[in-house]
Design brief:
The complex is a heterodimer of chains A (about 425) and B (about 300). Chain A is built from 17 helices and 4 strands. Chain A is an alpha/beta fold and about 425 residues long. Chain A has 2 domains: about 110 residues, D-Maltodextrin-Binding Protein, domain 2 (3-Layer(aba) Sandwich), CATH 3.40.190.10; about 230 residues, no CATH class. In chain A, α15 runs antiparallel to α16. Chain A is elongated and about 95 Å long. With about 300 residues, chain B is an alpha/beta fold. Chain B has 2 domains: about 220 residues, P-loop containing nucleotide triphosphate hydrolases (Rossmann fold), CATH 3.40.50.300; about 60 residues, Alpha-Beta Plaits (2-Layer Sandwich), CATH 3.30.70. In chain B, the strands form 3 sheets. A 6-stranded mixed β-sheet of chain B has the order 6-7-8-3-9-10, with helices on both faces. In chain B, strands 2-1-4-5 form a 4-stranded antiparallel β-sheet, with helices on one face. In chain B, α2 crosses α3. The chains are: A alpha/beta (about 425), B alpha/beta (about 300).
């Protein structure tokens, strides 16, 4: 078996069996379970809770309000309250009612209300009551002006407005909405992968170096193979973790009770309108982006002498992906801004920013090809440089660990000077 | 034969190894000596292709050494290190595989070696739970488990108690019997005298002594006199040919230029008083080392 694969599988299985990995995977699955079932979970907490509101005064509006709340299918139960405010307050203390509403008529014969409860942190009940009163007020005002119900409905109806893209090949609105979500999801996936798995590569390298096992390793396998075995092993681990998580998400969605609220909430996860080419680009940019960052992180990981120092050398690299992330976030609403176009060619940003452009606009193929060439070229450059730095870096032990050490490491791995 | 021809390694302005020529015969134990920073580890790293030499050639049996020969070479680095969290067996399986071995063979060999070192129960323990001496045994096993033709041991006995030193020494001699060529470094001269036929003393990257141990001692010329007398030895310093006197509790050592001087010293001592003990001995490697290396520190 090729030694690259020995390193690869060793890295893979060693991490796969480790407790932190199993725990993070489990937590993520739990999180996905919660997300997919969020509406039903919230419903199950809410259902049995009915808000009892005592209404003081203005009998004339009471029946209108009751009708309106019925129409709105709200959970609020109102009862006419005969006593004074003091008595109502006492009843709240004793738990007879949750809150009370003082309903009055203004001089203009319109309803007005004062809502009182122990706290007003809970917004739902007063909001429902307010909008119910608003409806009543509108219909009274309309009646006075001689407007019929039908006319009122017509006034309230929203205007029809449709967006059509004229440019040939431009995305339709449906496609754009789906693409936006897809790009958004992938942005997080790339961001998370670089932060999490990229760091894992750096930490692995630094751990082998600080435990001094590195010198035995690189006396039996070339540093280049060792480095790429590591990078690919962690990549395989990441893919396994994503596969498990997506599979679980899919299964949860299938078994979820299909009530209207929940499926409405998750309807954005429908990617049926996505073009296959966008998915291919997604995979391509994901893989290339990971490779570029993992190579750089393996390189800087080889410079530190102690595992605790990893964080300080990977920070500058992390900043790059954080910047890329923010540019892309900005670009989601303005994908054709100049800064987006320009940064989509910067190899460190290409994986997210160019992918965003492809998802949201119709980018000419040559532009995609150019950014890919730049990205691959940079990755190859860092692979070659990284392998050299790695070779020298793993033999270097010293106090300082900074980017300046790259030069020293290169010297050590070269023939002289 | 392992040959180094004119091997030089420079780090910037600093020359770590300077035109080193070595021929190490097969099936032998060769000692590479030197003080700290003499260039021993750099030489080993060049042999292993961990770093490239600035100049010169290194060949094993007439061929360049490269990574596709790594199954023929075993290496025990000076800085010991293993995966602290991994079990001994898993660790040796991984390292053995990297040297081109099959898993089943590694398991058999691991058991054999652990039994030989009297620690078979360590196979399923984590390395961090072992004592330093036992970790070093595992490290040694990792270096020899694939039966290398060429074995490089950088300070193999440092940090070990005398019992474990003997254990490891026996293992080294055993491997030599089985045909392994062993190159090792040490600054413990008695180990070198015990194990090596040939040796090289490096000083600041240059070989100051190089060759067969016996010949080196003979050609060194200077001899030691071990004497035990009832009077003060101070006056001996004035006898021509006496290099120095090292006084001890039971006996003193007088270093002399050559054998001939010994007779003159003896007659002077007899004139002076009662002589309990008088012996002429070969110089120790320690003497040679200190003179060759220590002298140029002054």
């Amino acid at each position: 078996m090729n030694k690259l694969f020995i390193v690869l599988f060793q890295t893979y299985f060693n991490r796969l069996k480790s407790k932190p990995f199993l725990i993070t995977t489990l937590i993520t699955i739990l999180f996905i379970f919660l997300i997919t079932n969020l509406p039903s979970i919230i419903d199950s907490f809410d259902n049995d809770e009915v808000d009892r509101v005592g209404v003081i005064g203005s009998d004339s509006y009471y029946s209108l309000l009751e009708q309106q709340l019925d129409l709105m299918e709200s959970d609020i139960e109102i009862t006419p309250y005969e006593g004074s405010e003091e008595e109502a307050q006492k009843d709240i203390d004793e738990g007879e009612i949750d809150s009370y509403l003082i309903l009055e008529s203004t001089p203009e014969k319109e309803p007005q209300g004062i809502f009182k409860a122990e706290t007003v942190a809970e917004q739902k009940t007063p909001q429902v009551l307010q909008s119910a009163l608003q409806q009543i007020k509108s219909s009274i005002a309309a009646e006075e002006a001689g407007v019929t119900q039908e006319q009122l409905l017509k006034i309230d109806q929203p205007v029809k407005f449709e967006k059509v893209a004229l440019e040939k090949g431009a995305k339709t609105e449906d496609e754009l909405d789906q693409a936006r979500v897809f790009v958004y999801v992938l942005l997080f996936v790339i961001y998370f992968s670089v932060i999490f798995y990229g760091n894992m590569v750096a930490v692995e390298v630094a751990a082998e170096k600080s435990s001094r096992v590195m010198e035995i390793l690189i006396s039996s396998v070339s540093p280049v193979k060792q480095m790429f075995g590591k990078i690919l092993g962690v990549a395989l681990l990441g893919l396994t973790q994503y596969a498990v998580i997506f599979l679980c998400g899919y299964v949860f969605l299938q078994f979820k009770d299909d009530d209207s609220a929940a499926s409405g909430f998750l309807s954005f996860l429908d990617f049926s309108n996505l073009s296959p080419s966008l998915i291919i680009y997604a995979v391509m940019f994901f893989v290339l982006g990971y490779l570029l960052y993992a190579t750089i992180l393996a390189m800087v990981g080889s410079l530190v002498s102690r595992a605790e120092e990893v964080q300080q050398v990977i920070l500058p690299v992390q900043f790059l992906i954080i910047i890329a992330f923010f540019i892309a976030m900005f670009g989601l609403s303005t994908p054709s801004a100049t800064i987006i176009t320009v940064t989509s060619y910067v190899p460190f940003f290409t994986p997210v920013v160019m992918f965003l452009r492809i998802g949201m606009l119709s980018v000419p193929f040559w532009e995609i090809a150019l950014s890919l060439v730049l990205l691959i070229g940079t990755t190859v450059f860092f692979a070659v440089l990284g392998a050299k730095v790695y070779r020298g870096g793993v033999l270097m032990y010293g106090k300082s660990s900074s980017i300046k050490d790259i030069g020293k490491a290169l010297k050590l791995s070269s023939k002289d000077k | 034969m392992l040959r180094l021809d004119n091997v030089t390694k420079r780090f910037g302005a600093f020359t770590a190894v300077d035109h080193l020529n070595l021929s190490i015969p097969e099936n032998e134990v060769f000692g590479l000596l030197g003080g700290n920073g003499a260039g021993k580890t750099t030489t080993f790293r060049m042999l292993l292709r961990l770093i490239d030499q600035t100049d010169g050639t290194i060949t094993w049996k007439g061929n360049d050494i490269s990574y596709n020969k790594s199954h023929l070479i075993g290496y025990l680095p000076e800085e010991r290190g293993l995966y602290p969290k991994m079990k001994v067996k898993e660790q040796l399986i991984y390292l053995g595989k990297l040297r081109g071995m099959k898993k089943e063979v590694i398991e058999v060999e691991t058991r054999k070696w652990l039994e030989r070192f009297g620690v078979p129960e360590n196979a399923d323990k984590k390395v961090e739970d072992l004592s330093k001496g036992n970790q070093q045994k595992i490290q040694f096993i990792a270096a020899v488990i694939h039966k290398p033709e060429l074995l490089i041991l950088d300070e193999p006995f440092s940090g070990l108690d005398p019992v474990n030193v003997e254990l490891l020494k026996d293992a080294v001699l055993d491997l030599k019997e089985k045909g392994t060529t062993i190159l090792f470094s040490s600054h413990r001269m008695e180990h070198v005298e015990e194990l090596c036929e040939h040796l090289c003393i490096l000083h600041r990257g240059k070989p100051v002594v190089n060759g067969n141990l016996k010949e080196i001692k003979q050609s060194y010329g200077k001899k030691n006199l071990i004497v035990n007398v009832d009077f003060d030895l101070g006056f001996v310093k004035n006898i021509p040919g006496v290099v120095r006197i090292k006084s001890g509790v039971n006996h003193s050592i007088i270093q002399i230029e050559n054998e001939a001087v010994s007779q003159e010293v003896l007659s002077e001592l007899l004139n002076k008083g009662f002589v309990r003990h008088f012996a002429l001995e070969e110089p120790s490697l320690n003497d040679i080392f200190i003179e060759k290396v220590g002298a140029s520190y002054e």
